[in-house]
Specification:
Layout (H helix, E strand, L loop, with lengths): L2 H13 L4 E3 H11 L9 H14 L12 E2 L6 E2 L1 E3 L21 H6 L3 H16 L6 E2 H9 L4 H5 L3 H4 L10 E2 L7 E4 L2 E9 L2 H13 L6 E7 L5 H4 L12 E5 L4 H16 L5 E3 L1 H10 L3 E2 L10 H4 L4 H12 L2 E2 L7 H6 L2 H4 L8
Parallel strand pairs: 5-6, 8-9, 8-10, 10-11
Antiparallel strand pairs: 1-4, 2-3, 7-9, 12-13
């Protein structure tokens, strides 16, 4: 079994208050901790293999009936996993210890052996490195825990979630996962236009390069990589020249808009320029697209959180599309349409923020 994925799953299951844990939530957590799972064609097979191995070891319980499994895609995955029934054990109280002042809040919360061991390692590191310079998270994790991925897992647990421990205390920081982008020089302030899908990224890039440098906007063209974009958006800080405004266009469906709103929230959390919809391109998709059934839409009644990200003029037509459980693929706006109407790309990222 993949050790890192095993650790992520065991940690997540143990932290949940219920005896049954939904696998879709577990999968969202795993991809947030390890973004390499996003877009990995073997991710489903890896997850199935790890869950089967954990079930054999008695670490989790899998459903025994077919109704507890999602077999629409191979290999089948359980809809939930259960915690094994174990007799209650009385933990021995740890021996009293005087902790460094920086760890007192965390020590007051720590009750489990793994938490106390973590604090012990951090205390040793703090003593030996009183003036450490900031480094990437994985490098500090290897230094303190002898595992480059362990600290990322720890940040999802309560000592970090409560703020008792922080990455600032450990003088480290998460490094953004870069997303593919190309700078196309032009006029005006530099802006970033991100496409959800790979084909649209290439079409935007080709169309932008064909525009006259005297008239086209100064653009970074980026590929968000689907569900990876809410994580990789922090890589905006790596772009040169730095964009002053961020625009996004994706599929007009429930999943595409969820990616956009999650990425917009991440931009706010990381103090980036607001992620705005490329409204003109969405408007074109509504006017020219061929709606098809949306398999990502399970009939959720309230789409207000997704619609709020869009400009007011687009909310009602997009709401009708979502309520009908239909979608319009962003590939509708292909290279042919961009060549026929160069103004589409030129007007996609206005200089003034909406």
């Amino acid at each position: 079994m993949t050790t890192a994925l095993v650790d992520i799953i065991i940690s997540y299951v143990s932290e949940q208050p219920t005896s049954r844990i939904r696998v879709d939530g577990l999968l969202r957590h795993a991809t947030a901790v390890d973004p390499t799972l996003v877009g990995d064609p073997t991710a489903r097979a890896r997850l199935a293999g790890v869950l089967a191995g954990l079930a054999e070891e008695g670490a989790v319980v899998l459903p025994k009936t077919r109704t507890g499994w999602d077999d629409r895609t191979k290999p089948p995955l359980p809809l939930w996993v259960g915690k094994p029934a174990k007799p209650r054990r009385t933990l021995l109280a740890p021996a009293p210890r005087v902790w460094p002042q920086a760890l007192e809040a965390a020590a007051a919360l720590a009750t489990r052996p793994d938490e106390l061991e973590l604090l012990d390692r951090i205390a040793t590191w703090l003593r030996n490195n009183p003036d450490a310079s900031p480094v990437p998270l994985e490098e500090r994790s290897l230094e303190i825990l002898n595992d480059e991925k362990a600290l990322a897992v720890e940040t999802t647990k309560r000592l970090f979630a409560t703020g008792a421990l922080t990455l600032d205390l450990l003088a480290c920081y998460p490094t953004p996962v870069p997303f593919p982008s190309q700078h196309v020089p032009g006029r005006g302030p530099t802006r970033l236009l991100v496409a959800e899908n790979n084909a649209t990224f290439h079409s935007f890039l080709e169309a932008a390069r064909r525009l006259s440098p005297e008239f086209r906007p100064d653009l970074h063209i980026g590929w968000g990589g689907g569900n990876q974009f809410p994580t990789s958006i922090t890589a905006v800080t790596l772009l040169d020249p730095t964009p002053t405004a961020l625009y996004y266009v994706g599929d007009l469906d429930l999943a595409g808009l969820r990616i956009a709103t999650n990425a917009a929230a991440a931009a706010i959390a990381h103090r980036l320029p607001p992620l705005q919809p490329a409204a003109g391109l969405y408007d074109w998709l509504l006017a020219n697209g061929n709606p098809r059934p949306d398999r990502s839409n399970t009939g959720i009644a309230d789409h207000s959180d997704l619609l709020a990200w869009l400009p007011e003029g687009l909310r009602e037509p997009v709401s009708r599309l979502l309520r009908a459980r239909m979608r319009i693929a962003q590939e509708t706006l292909g290279l042919r349409a961009l060549r026929q109407d160069p103004a589409l790309l030129m007007q996609a990222c206005p200089e003034r923020m909406t």
